[in-house]
Structures are given as structure tokens and as C-alpha cells.
Amino acid sequence: MTMAGDVYASNRGLQWSVRVFGWCMLIGLPIYFFNNYLIFVQGWPGLAPIFGGGEVSTDSWIQLSLYFLGLVFAIVLVRRTSGRHLRDEAAMITRFNTYLVRAAFWAVFLVGLVDMSLSFLRIEGLLPYLIGDELNVEMGRAHFRGPYIHIPLIVLSLLIALRSRTLGFQWLALLVVFAELAIVLSRFIFSYEQAFMGDLVRFWYAALFLFASAYTLVEEGHVRVDVFYAGFTNKTKGFVNAVGTLFMGITLCWTILFVGMGSKASIIYSPLSNFEVSQSGFGLHVKYLMAGFLAVFAVTMLIQFVSYLMEAVADYLDQPGHHDHEASLTG
Fold it and tell me: Residue 4: which pLDDT band, with cuts at 50, 70 and 90?
């Protein structure tokens, strides 16, 4: 009885630790982005003075305290929901991630169509007749089209995703094919091709590749270098998956965010903050959004890796319900 009680207590402790760690990862995401806003937009000093030397201000301690508050919130949340099983929590996290990915697909679909239409009308000289010369000039500026066209469409996508219950990546793949087919037909039959046509294909294809990664993880669709794994027991597979998730998956996602958004000149933040566009003249004004795809990829994969970690630990602990979570993101 004592040994059984020790095992039970150990399992409970492991489950508690994994849940706290997972929620720290999830809560840390909005805190990280909010701190970046404070640093790059509001001019706050960040955490560098605390850990790197130099004069430490109250603002730095406030920013650091946000992470401690996130840790406290995670501990309190786990304690208040101590009866929740790992698989149930993993399923809940996956459902939230489903919403994010669904909204991202709606966003690239709407932004792609609207931006393509605006570019076509500008090239053919039709836009001034619809909105006037002054607004036509503004539509040629990414600093106008981004805040007043793209961002409202992204907000609309978030609302649509609340009602829609299907993932659109299959349809997006079909749209990529149609967009490429339109280029072939217009080029070789009508001798007509514009920069925005190729931009649209790249825009949608990049979204298809990056946004579907979390879905593919749930469906076990990523290529696994399988030499010994297939012969492992569920308990051993759970251990391998948990270790891989911790030291490869979650680490990779945070590395992308730290490198891509660690400074004003970083590869994700710089294009987003400057509404960067391609130099193709009348192409789509979405290059800055394509840089943001990397952030969306890192965030959705990090959230899904947290869910995957909880499932892996549940397998390691031989908890019931193995693979019941794989109803897919389309459910």
C-alpha cells in the first residue's frame, strides 16, 4: 500500500508539474507580445537592465513581474482545476488552437481576394472611378492598406471563425491550384500577367504550409524518423514524445519568437512594424503579413506542442483514453 501510494503521489506530482509548465508556456505568449509592445512602441527598457547590468528602472521590474504573475496564475489555475485530466486539458487546448488556425485561414483567404481585387483595379485604372483619385493614391500605400483594409479583414476573420466549424486548408490548397492555373491560362492564352497574380499564389501557399502544421501534428502527419519507435509500448512512446516535445518542439517555437521578434530589426517584427511590401510595383501589399506567418506558425505550434506534451505524459502514466483526442482540428 505504501509503494502504491508513493507511485500515485509521484504520478499526481508529475501531472501537476506538466500542467503548470504547460499553462506557463501558454500564458507566457501574450505576456511576451505585450512586453514587446511596451519595449518597441512605448519605449520601456525591458528585462535587459536587470540581467545584463546597467541602470534598472521601475519599468523593468514591472515587466519582469508580469512573468511572475503569469506563473502565479498558472499555479492557481491548476490548483483550482486539480480534478481535470491531462487528456481533457489537451483537448481543450487543441480546440482553442483550432479556432486560431481557422481564423488565420479565413484571414489569408479574405485578405488575398480583397488585395488582389484592389491591385487589379489599380493596374487597369478602374479604381479612381470607384473611390476617387485621393483614395486611389492612398490604396497604393501599404501604411494605408494595412491598417484600413487588412486589419479589419483579420478582425472579421476572427468573428467568422467563431461561427465556422470547419478548417479551410483543404479549400485553400484548391485555391492555390486555381490561382496558379489562372496564371497559366492568362499568360499563354491572353498574354496577360501581373505581379499580383504570382504574389497571391505565394501568399496562399505560404499560409497553407505554415498554418497547417499544427493540424498535421494532431493527425501525426509530420514525417517521423522511425527506426525503433513503432515497436515501443504506449508508455515508452509517451516518454519519447514528451522529451522530444520539450527539447525540440517547444524550444524551436520559442527560438523563432525570440529571434524573429527580439529587436526592432528582427526578421518578423521589422516587416510587420513597417508594413513592408515587395518591389514589384502593383503587386499585393502583403509581404509584411507573410513575415507574420512565421509568428503565427510558432504560436500555433507552441500551443499544439503543449497539448501534445500533456497527451504524451498521459500515455506515459498509462491513463485511459489513448488517441481519443485525434478527432482532428476539424471537429
Answer: very low
